[in-house]
Design goal:
The protein has 110 residues and is of the alpha+beta class. It has four helices and four strands; from the N terminus they run αβαβαββα.
């Protein structure tokens, strides 16, 4: 997988300290739906290089982070900008939906 794996400390630094515009997929290795979604994100990543980050959190290794956002099930793709939560996409997603959400986040005022 080419998405950087984040632990809770790295998540805090990236999202809240640096305020990076990014998405974080909350997933687990054994999830079949996740295995279909991650390649979509990997395909989109080069298109937004330098403008929007793509990251991965393993929910089995980072349970507290997963619970902090009251997430139910995986995969969950959370979007952030300037340290603020911008919404999420859940379950099997289409590339167009993810791309549209990224564009919305990049163009938002927050």
């Amino acid at each position: 997988m080419s998405l950087p794996l984040l632990n809770a400390e790295q998540f805090e630094e990236l999202i809240y300290d640096k305020g990076e515009s990014c998405l974080v997929i909350f997933s687990r290795k054994s999830c079949h739906v996740c295995q279909g979604v991650v390649p979509i994100l990997e395909d989109l990543k080069p298109q937004f290089e330098g403008r929007f980050g793509f990251y991965y959190v393993d929910v089995e290794e980072e349970k507290a982070l997963y619970q902090r956002f009251s997430l139910k099930g995986v995969p969950q793709i959370l979007f952030f900008k300037n340290g603020e939560y911008q919404g999420k996409l859940a379950g099997a997603v289409e590339e167009e939906d993810v791309e549209e959400r990224i564009t919305d986040v990049l163009n938002s005022e927050s």
